[in-house]
Design a protein that fits this description.
single chain, TIM Barrel, two-stranded parallel sheet, about 40% helix, binds 6-O-phosphono-beta-D-glucopyranose, GH_1_N_CS, glycosidase, hydrolase activity
């Protein structure tokens, strides 16, 4: 416990999810297939030819039909915000359709109605690892410049329809992850080991331009909207004090920071251009692209934070750990989750300070949490999960957010990842649970889909009620 009073009144507290990981109903009401429908095992195995019935995401946790009940539980915890994504293929089933699918649009109206009823501010991710499959197969995803136009058509529909109801928007989930997971993150159908650096970095460029274009369209159609980029944050520490390790760590860190630099400053930094030259990559950047980037910078920077990594210039010391989508050198000072993600609460304070010093933009922590195996038990006749490990993880990280606030960092809010159990992105498991709410569904697809409050549910409600004083 500490006595921090740093969390300001308007601080947005809540939870985060993504459509493909919770909704299910994968073909309902005119929805088209997304890349997730051919990723039954996440990024651990290559995509399948078509949908297979071992894909948990086909039903996921059935949020499509249970959203009202779930949002009521979020409200019970006192959320002031809820981050969710819109499934692109519900709105444009093939991605390149001329007209949007009204039934898909109507679903998100119903979700927004429910949030409004409870006074919960929506925070919407426009594209969260769910590119329409047709765009992957017919265009090779973001490698193709045409994707910019399809994305623009999609965001125009979103801002026109929801612009008066949704203030906070994120253009691409973890936009920097396309380098590591080109199919999941960028809808790039070419297998990773056959993908040329030129195509990969051209895809990155197209996404950055599309992100700026979304900001431009928002200014036109939804003048009250606030647009943020979203970055997978992973502070990179030198493995030793050897200056070569320090430089190597800076270089690796910049592979992530570059994405914030472009979104905030509106141009590619010199170090990024150098790294492209050294890869032999010559980008196709038009004058219009340059103008779009320069004139449409973001209002805020959002990010996910789960772990930090180390880096070294000495190949013989490269003990590679597991960690989110990004491989990294293991930190001998840190413990790891059951999935090998190294737990580092102070790293969150470091990231917040680094981003604030660098960008001077309001920051929003839109993902953070512990994936763990939970056991449903009965306590005083009530079925629950005694998830003290999750409480400890979240508590330690929120204490560091409080420290960053004391440091003077402007933090808009915090949405913990997977506030209700969902299907994991990297491994497509339900047994890797993040939620305050347990969902009775197992990796083999069995289960009643019933919801149960975990111990962390009450803990989080108290943290929110006391605005952090209970930490
Ligand atoms: C982030 C993604 O990478 O981390 C989420 O934005 C994802 O979609 C989360 O679920 C946790 O990762 P995982 O692989 O444990 O689900």
């Amino acid at each position: 416990s500490n006595t921090t009073t740093a969390f300001p009144d308007g601080f947005l507290w809540g939870g985060a999810t993504a459509a493909n990981q919770i909704e299910g109903a994968y073909l309902e009401d005119g929805k088209g297939l997304s890349i997730q429908d051919v990723m039954p095992h996440g990024i651990t195995t290559p995509r399948t030819a078509g949908p297979t019935d071992d894909n948990l995401k086909q039903v996921a946790i059935d949020f499509y039909h249970r959203y009202a009940e779930d949002i009521a539980l979020f409200a019970e915890m006192g959320y002031s915000t809820y981050r969710f994504s819109i499934a692109w293929s519900r709105i444009f089933p093939n991605g390149d359709d001329a007209e949007p699918n009204e039934a898909g649009l109507a679903f998100y109206d119903r979700v927004l109605d429910e949030l409004e009823k409870h006074g919960i501010e929506p925070l919407v991710t426009i594209s969260h690892y769910e590119t329409p499959l047709h765009l992957a197969e017919a265009y090779d995803g973001w490698v193709n410049r045409d994707l910019i136009g399809f994305y623009e058509r999609y965001v125009r529909v979103l801002f026109a329809r929801y612009g008066s109801r949704v203030k906070y928007w994120l253009t691409f989930n973890e936009i920097n992850s396309v380098i590591h997971a080109p199919f999941m993150s960028g809808g790039i159908n070419t297998p990773k080991d056959e993908l040329s650096p030129t195509d990969l970095y051209q895809a990155v460029h197209h996404e950055l331009v599309a992100s700026a274009l979304a900001t431009k369209v928002a200014r036109e159609l939804a003048p009250n909207a606030q647009i943020g980029c979203m970055i997978l944050a992973m502070p990179v520490y030198p493995l030793t004090p050897n200056p070569d390790d320090v430089m190597a760590a800076l270089t690796t860190d910049r592979t992530n920071l570059a994405f914030g630099d472009v979104h905030v400053r509106g141009a590619y930094p010199g170090y990024y251009l150098r790294s492209l030259r050294e890869k032999g990559v010559e980008l196709d950047i038009t004058e219009d692209d340059r103008r779009l980037l320069a004139e449409n910078t973001v209002d805020f920077v959002s990010f996910s934070y789960y772990a930090s990594v180390c880096e070294t210039a000495d190949a013989s010391k490269r003990v590679t750990g597991e960690g989110n989508l990004f491989p990294g050198v293991r930190n001998p000072e840190l413990r790891a989750s059951e999935w090998g993600w190294q737990i580092d609460p102070v790293g969150l304070r470091i990231a917040l300070n680094q981003f604030w010093d660098r960008w001077q933009k309001p920051l929003f922590i839109v993902e953070n949490g512990l994936g763990a195996k939970d056991e449903l038990v009965e306590v005083d006749g009530i079925r629950t999960v005694v998830d003290d490990y999750r409480i400890a993880y979240l508590n330690d990280h929120l204490v560091q957010v409080g420290e960053a606030l004391e440091d003077g960092v402007e933090v808009m809010g915090y949405t913990s990842w997977g506030c209700i159990d969902l299907v994991s992105a990297s491994t497509a498991q339900l047994s890797k649970r993040y939620g305050f709410i347990y969902v009775d569904r197992n990796d083999d697809g069995s289960g009643t889909l019933e919801r149960f409050r975990k111990k962390s549910f009450g803990w989080y409600a108290e943290v929110i009620r006391t605005r952090g004083a209970a930490l």
